[in-house]
Amino acid sequence: MSYSNETDAEQRGTDRRTMNYGKEKIAVYRTYANPLEDVRTIPESSFDGRDNILFGLEVRVQFEGEEFLPSFSEADNTTVVATDSMKNFVLHQAGEYEGATAEGFLHFVGTEFLETYPHVEAVKMSAIEYPFDERPVPGEDGFEPSDLVFRVSDDESAFGEVSLERDGDELRFEEQTSGVTEIELVKVKENSFTGYVQDEYTTLPEREDRALYIALDVFWTYADPEDALGDDPQRYVPAEQVRDIAHVVFHEVNSNSIQDLIYQIGLRVLERYPQLESVSFEANNRTWIEVRDDLEGDAKVLREPPRPTGYQQFSMDRSDLEEQ
């Protein structure tokens, strides 16, 4: 799944020209960053913090400002900060950051950019966090997590995005998005898909019970964007906990569609975190196709689905929770 900083619809809906530039795919790694501690725990997750012995991000930087127009219209680079300099700036600031979250790092670097380059009107920073797993090693009481050796993981990734802009002599921070991406889950039974439109184009049979394979990205915004930075760990929403909510709800709910499933996940997220303003989803249906269902009990033989695949996008806010 991909992430766009500005949709075509947003561009068409404003008179302001699209004009920005920046650097993306900046890989930055920090060892022994400050740990994330004292986060509030929830029933669906055992996550209560992370050591941040290894903290890695893939960062994207975007500069905006009318001062950059001559670089487009007149080939005048007088005000252009080279994107290679942006990369070096991000790498340097990784050693200065004293916080513990991806969103906090992005806010810190964005603020430093605006303070260093006064002609930049706004900066948008986003990042995908690289996941690492501690590897088990023999200890006094059996195997225990190593604090030295980590596996580069293909698991879910935390996502963060912050936008900062100048407001006179002040810097304004009003927009953020946090998330967890590339969740992949399979539930082997207790999923249905029935009651949909039946017409001359319908070839898909209804399923009272099917194995369901979904890929899922979840994003959320805070009522107060400052809560995203992690300065108050009790109000910070860890990506690991939202990931765990997703698989717990998947386990508990016998859903009649992926739409139904993500709505139930969204309700649980909003219920657990009253500091959140909204939650949104992009889901992809990767459900396997049955080859044999004549085996004993619940056993089935399945194969990969052909392309194309279905997807769902959905957003919710606190009004959805209040209606329950």
Keywords:
alpha+beta; Urate Oxidase; 2 domains; two-stranded antiparallel ribbon
Give the helix/strand layout:
Layout lengths: L7 H5 L7 E12 L22 E11 L4 H5 L9 H11 L8 H15 L5 E9 L1 E8 L2 E11 L4 E11 L2 E18 L24 E11 L16 H14 L5 H15 L3 E10 L3 E4 L8 E3 L7 E7 H5 L2
Antiparallel strand pairs: 1-2, 2-3, 3-6, 4-5, 6-7, 7-8, 8-9, 9-12, 10-11
In short:
By secondary structure, this protein is an alpha+beta fold.
Could you characterize what this model shows?
With 324 residues, the protein is α+β, with helices and mostly antiparallel strands. The protein folds into 2 domains: 8-178, Urate Oxidase; 180-322, Urate Oxidase (Roll). The protein has helices at residues 8-12, 69-73, 83-93, 102-116, 239-252, 258-272, 318-322; strands at 20-31, 54-64, 122-130, 132-139, 142-152, 157-167, 170-187, 212-222, 276-285, 289-292, 301-303, 311-317. The strands form 3 sheets. It has an 8-stranded antiparallel sheet with strand order 1-2-3-6-7-8-9-12. A two-stranded antiparallel sheet has the order 4-5. Helix 5 (239-252) packs across helix 6. The model is unreliable at 1-14 (pLDDT under 50).
